[in-house]
Amino acid sequence: xxxxxxxxxxxxxxxxxxxxxxxxxxxxxxxxxxxxxxxxxxxxxxxxxxxxxxxxxxxxxxxxxxxxxxxxxxxxxxxxxxxxxxxxxxxxxxxxxxxxxxxxxxxxxxxxxxxxxxxxxxxxxxxxxxxxxxxxxxxxxxxxxxxxxxxxxxxxxxxxxxxxxxxxxxxxxxxxxxxxxxxxxxxxxxxxxxxxxxxxxxxxxxxxxxxxxxxxx
Length: 217
Description:
Order of helices and strands: HEHEHEHEHEHE
Distance between the termini: 53 Å
Strand content: 15-25%
CATH superfamily of the largest domain: NAD(P)-binding Rossmann-like Domain
CATH class of the largest domain: Alpha Beta
Radius of gyration: 20 Å
Number of domains: 2
């Protein structure tokens, strides 16, 4: 009887943890994007625009989402000039689920969802307004959840035999709080929550969906 309890309450949970570790352990995987739909948030400038250029050049059907219609048009023109490829653009605030849902539905089923949006307020907590804390939380965390929730049903029902992918441009700050007393402490906390959510979600969607993290410093 003692051996049965030892196996049930110690060895079995330990074995499950080991198996889960190897299943969700990040690994280098090449995501096929040629002739597939790549949807990029924060795609009108910076890293997002560079990723849109690269995806279009590799033969993907690219959609980019950002808040500014003017910057989106500039991005579309720049990609067309550089690659000869026309990309779709969508203006929406990631904090607004209904606006995000409309953009995602109009864009069509997504094969690769690349979440690149984010904001950073460089102030210590005592100097930040609560509205600034909420703004950072709403964009970086809730904006990510809004996009995944809006895109997920159609991603799961695709006919493409290749796996769907969700990729996040995150931050090393979300791994270890390197700036405990620095102006980025709120940002670090929020990015940690984003990364933790993605780890949990990886377990939930493990059978068919791969979630990757791209870190910027």
